[in-house]
Amino acid sequence: MLQKSLALNSSLPQAKYLQLATVRPDGRPANRTVVFRGFLYDTDHLTIVTDRRSCKVSELAANPHVEVCWYFPSSREQYRLSGSMAIVSKDDSNQQLLQARQEAWARMSDAGRSQFVWPQPGQPRMPADEDLFLQPAPDSAGSAAPDFCLGVVQVTEVDHVDLYTNQRRIFSSQLAAVVAAGTPSNGDAPSQPALRWETRNVNP
Amino acid sequence: MLQKSLALNSSLPQAKYLQLATVRPDGRPANRTVVFRGFLYDTDHLTIVTDRRSCKVSELAANPHVEVCWYFPSSREQYRLSGSMAIVSKDDSNQQLLQARQEAWARMSDAGRSQFVWPQPGQPRMPADEDLFLQPAPDSAGSAAPDFCLGVVQVTEVDHVDLYTNQRRIFSSQLAAVVAAGTPSNGDAPSQPALRWETRNVNP
User: Fold this and answer.
1) Where are the beta strands (DSSP E) in A44-147?
2) What is the distance of C-alpha B127 from the center of its chain?
């Protein structure tokens, strides 16, 4: 369904922008726009990229639950994707996830890669640091910047509404909830079990 | 700033769509698209409309904190608006807020008003209920539907980033945090104190 929605909205660059909600340690919600970076290999986990120094990384360490809100303007569809998010940093023990991280780095634009060597996001902007924002971009063929992370959203519930037809469906998977608890401790990539999604038609 | 951003993006209907994050009673985040319905009178509180039967109303009763993520595609700006949200329902004791609710009802389209007399959102869709989705819209000049609510977002912090210039600023107000605790108990409309917003330039 998401691949179809992406195709229907491919003329809009912002159709790949989604809003990621997390919960702050003090119990308040946080919400920001992130860019969809594709599915993880042949799974249906969504990937994004993030800076290890960003607030969302520390928020997720305390509460891994997320809800993605993804609105497609051309097809007038909204997906609410609920689940948890894992952060793959340079120290991850899983070789396949590390490879996915490196591949995501290589696919980034120069402007996108540059941000990961800028001064710490959210800290006061200092005149003495201005030159750091003008550095040449790190090489796409080199190792990913130390603070570059891949975020993997493991979805356990989908709430989809089509505003043209006013059809709304909720898809949920108990099995996915188990998978979301973590990657296997033996270091293998997370396998994609045959998820059985339960579908319900609900009132919009 | 928001009025300027709205003007810069006025060719895009979806520029009035924003994503509202709340926290569910079980501690997981929730996130959905809502439509900006203007500022509350001459205040800088944002208004939206919502159905009293929707999950967000019960979520807000337990935790009034929200974060709005508002992305403007044409000007490539993101606002993260953090604060709390009050729900104005038909039983509100504040006459000015009740009037704002009724005026919001009158400004809705026929399609928008119809939704408030549909069967309960999120409940299983029943074939026997299909006729209810085909009812004529309630009159814009009549009283607002009983489940129609105005949501008022009282913003205490703004995180604004301009992706063209990579300038990011955070505006925060301690005074607004006090106002957000509730409307005056004497039934007057919430007054708009002279907010002193502290501005910080931070790293994007």
Assistant:
1) 46-51, 65-72, 77-88
2) 32
For residue B133, list chain A residues with Cβ-Cβ distance below 8 A: 166
Instruction: Supply A65's token pair.
Output: 């639950």
CATH number for position B154? 2.30.110.10
Domain boundaries, position B118: 2-202
A66–chain B nearest CA distance, Å: 6
Query: Phi and psi at residue B81, in whole multiples of 5°?
Result: -110, 110
| Strand partners for A108 | none
ipTM, two decimals: 0.91
What single letter denotes the amino acid at residue B105?
W
pTM of the model: 0.91
Total number of domains constituting chain B: 1
Count H helices and E strands in chain B, helices first. 5, 8
Residue B89 CB partners (closer than 8 Å, separation 6+): B52, B101, B149
In tens, the pLDDT along A167-197 reads: 999 999 866 445 455 555 555 555 556 678 8
Which range (A114-123, B43-52, B194-203) has the least confidence?
B194-203
Q: What is the pLDDT of residues B11-45, one digit of tens each?
A: 999 999 999 999 999 999 999 999 999 999 999 99
Contact list, A21 vs chain B (CB under 8 Å)? 19, 21, 29-31, 67, 69
CA distance linking residue B115 with residue A53, whole number of Å: 43
Torsion of CA A124, A65, B32, A30, to 10 degrees: -20
Q: Which of B29, B166, B200 sits opposite A67 (nearest CB)?
A: B29
Candidate from B17, B78, B203 with C-beta closest to A121: B203
